């Protein structure tokens, strides 16, 4: 994306990155699924995760347990979504002995 080789990149200038992790610094009205101080990870179809701070819809955030490195959590979410899309949308995976 930084080289402009992916068709997902918006026109310059933009902030790259589609996954990240961090500490919640504020929550909107009515949000009960996370609170200030929680560590969360996310993957977003919108670029911008290289930013120092981000405003995200709460449904993109996944809580990160203290036993998991937040950077690894962010990478796992995005890579997991990529694998899911490839398996379910790109090519239907099946058992090799079933026809």
Kindly describe this structure.
This protein is α+β, with helices and mostly antiparallel strands and 99 residues long. The protein has one domain. Helices cover 21% and strands 13% of the residues. It has one helix at 70-90, and strands at residues 19-23, 39-43, 61-63. Strands 1-2-3 form a three-stranded antiparallel β-sheet, with helices on one face. The longest helix is centred in the last third of the chain and has 21 residues, at 70-90. The chain is globular, with a radius of gyration of 16 Å. The chain starts with 18 loop residues before the first strand and ends in a 9-residue tail after the last helix.
Summarize the structure.
It comes from Lactuca sativa (Garden lettuce). The protein has one helix at 70-90, and strands at 19-23, 39-43, 61-63.
> What fraction of the residues are assigned to beta strands by DSSP?
5-15%
Helix/sheet category: alpha+beta
Percent helix, as a range, is 10-25%
Number of domains: 1
Detail the poorly predicted runs.
none
Gyration radius, in Å: 16 Å
- Which term fits the overall shape? globular
- Straight-line N-to-C gap: 39 Å
Average pLDDT score = 85
User: How many DSSP-defined strands?
Assistant: 3
Order of helices and strands: EEEH
> What spatial order of strands do you see in the largest sheet?
1-2-3
List keywords for this structure.
99 residues, alpha+beta, three-stranded antiparallel β-sheet, 21% helix, globular
Explain the layout of strands and helices.
Blueprint: E1 19-23, E2 39-43, E3 61-63, H1 70-90
Antiparallel strand pairs: 1-2, 2-3
């Amino acid at each position: 994306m930084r080289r402009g080789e992916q068709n997902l990149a918006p026109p310059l200038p933009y902030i790259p990155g589609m996954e990240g992790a961090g500490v919640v610094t504020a929550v909107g009205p009515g949000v009960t699924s996370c609170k200030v101080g929680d560590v969360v990870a996310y993957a977003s179809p919108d670029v911008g995760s290289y930013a120092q701070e981000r405003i995200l819809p709460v449904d993109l955030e996944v809580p990160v347990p203290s036993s998991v490195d937040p950077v690894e959590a962010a990478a796992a979410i995005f890579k997991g979504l990529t694998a899911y899309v490839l398996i379910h949308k790109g090519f239907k995976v099946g058992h090799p002995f079933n026809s």
